[in-house]
Design brief:
Strand order of the largest sheet: 3-4-5-10-11-12-13-16
CATH superfamily: NADP-dependent oxidoreductase domain
CATH class: Alpha Beta
Strand content: 15-25%
CATH architecture: Alpha-Beta Barrel
Largest sheet: 8 strands, parallel, barrel
Number of strands: 16
Shape: globular
Structural class: alpha/beta
Length: about 325
C-alpha cells in the first residue's frame, strides 16, 4: 500500500490519505522543534502524497495549530484534509512556564477543560482563527474518559452529553465540519459516546496496535456501525519504534517480554518491526488512516518507507502461529 492511497469514511463524503501526519511535534512535544524542521516534515509528507494532517489547540499551547495553518493555507483548500480538536479552551496566561504538559517553550495560553456547548463553540472558533481555515474537515472531542479525568470524569461527561455533543452536531449540520468524533486513548469512552451521539470517526491512540488488541471487539462494532477509526500511537509511545516507553512511561517487564517475542520474529524473517507496526492496523476494515508524528523530513521518510515496505504473508502467519496476535485479529494479506 502506498502512502498516497486514500480510504473513505463510511458515512461521510470525506477520504483520508492512509497515512496522516500528527502535528504534536510541531508544538514542541518533549523538545523544541525549530520551525524549519517542522516545515521540512510537512513538505516531506506532502511530497510523499500524505494529505491528512491532525492537530489540536493543546499541542504546544496553540503553537501546532498556528504553524500548521501557516503551512496549509499556502495550498489549495480542496487538496488536503485537516482535523483539530475541542475540549480545552486556551486562556491567555502569563504564568505558563518553560515546559508544561511535556511541551517545551509553550505559548502563553493555559488549557482549561471545557466540554460544554459554549466551550466547544469557543474552542472551534479559536481554532479556525489559528488555522486560517473556514471549515476544518474533522472535529474531535479531545481527551475525555476515566483515565484522563479520574474521579472528575462524570462531571466532564455530563458537560459533553449536556451540550458538547449538541455543538458538534450543529457544526456538522451547518457544514462547518464534515465529520465529528472523539480523539482519545481509551476505546471504552468511544463506545459510550456511540450510545448517545452519532459520531462519524474516532481517533484511537495506542489501543489497537501490533502490541495490544484488547479493543478488537470494539473495532468490530465500529466497522458494523460505519464509524471510521484513525489509528494513532501505533508505536505505543515509541516502544515499537526502538525506545522502552509504553503509555508514556517506562515499559513494564511483561510488555518488554512480549516485545522481545515480536522482535524475534521480525529478525528471523528480515522484517522491520516499525514496518509491521505501521501496517498492522490497516488490516482492520474500520481503520481509514494511520497517523504518526514526525519532527523532521528524515522521520517522515522513515515512516513512509516502513508503511510501504513489502512484508510477506508468511510473517503475519508466523505471528498467529506463535500466539502473538489473537485468532480473530485481521492481518494483512488475510494471514
Amino acid at each position: 500500500m502506498k502512502a498516497s492511497e486514500t480510504r473513505k469514511l463510511p458515512r461521510r463524503d470525506l477520504s483520508l490519505s492512509v497515512i496522516g501526519l500528527g502535528c504534536a511535534q510541531m508544538g514542541n512535544l518533549y523538545r523544541v522543534t525549530p520551525y524549519d524542521e517542522a516545515r521540512g516534515a510537512f513538505s516531506a509528507a506532502w511530497d510523499a502524497g500524505i494529505r491528512y494532517f491532525d492537530t489540536a489547540p493543546f499541542y504546544g499551547y496553540t503553537r501546532s495549530e498556528r504553524r500548521l495553518g501557516t503551512m496549509l493555507t499556502d495550498l489549495d483548500r480542496q487538496d488536503y484534509v485537516v482535523s483539530t480538536k475541542v475540549g480545552r479552551v486556551m486562556h491567555p496566561d502569563v504564568s505558563v512556564g518553560a515546559e508544561e504538559d511535556s511541551y517545551a517553550a509553550p505559548l502563553p495560553f493555559r488549557p482549561v477543560y471545557d466540554y460544554t456547548y459554549d466551550g466547544v463553540m469557543r474552542s472551534f472558533e479559536d481554532s479556525r482563527q489559528r488555522l486560517g481555515i473556514y471549515a476544518p474537515d474533522i472535529l474531535f472531542i479531545h481527551d475525555i474518559g476515566a483515565v484522563t479525568h479520574g474521579e472528575k470524569n462524570g462531571h466532564y461527561w455530563s458537560q459533553l452529553t449536556g451540550g458538547g455533543f449538541r455543538a458538534l452536531g450543529e457544526l456538522r449540520d451547518q457544514g462547518l465540519v464534515k465529520a465529528v468524533g472523539l480523539g482519545v486513548n481509551e476505546f471504552e469512552v468511544i463506545r459510550d459516546a456511540m450510545q448517545v451521539f452519532d459520531i462519524d470517526v474516532a481517533m484511537l491512540a495506542g489501543r489497537y496496535t501490533l502490541l495490544e488488541q484488547e479493543s478488537l471487539s470494539f473495532m468490530d462494532e465500529c466497522a458494523a456501525a460505519g464509524v471510521g477509526i484513525v489509528a494513532a500511537g501505533v508505536f505505543n509511545s515509541g516502544l515499537l519504534a526502538g525506545n522502552r516507553k509504553f503509555n508514556y512511561q517506562d515499559a513494564p517487564q511483561d510488555v518488554l517480554a512480549h516485545l522481545g517475542r515480536l522482535d524475534a520474529v521480525c529478525r528471523e524473517m528480515n522484517v522491520s518491526l516499525q514496518a509491521a507496526a505501521m501496517q498492522f492496523p490497516m488490516a482492520h476494515k474500520a481503520v481509514v488512516s494511520v497517523v504518526s508524528g514526525a519532527r523532521n523530513a528524515s522521520q517522515i521518510s522513515s515512516n513512509v518507507s516502513s508503511f510501504e515496505e513489502a512484508i510477506p504473508a508468511a510473517f503475519w502467519a508466523e505471528l498467529r502461529t506463535r500466539g502473538l496476535v489473537g485468532e480473530g485479529v485481521p492481518l494483512p494479506h488475510g494471514a
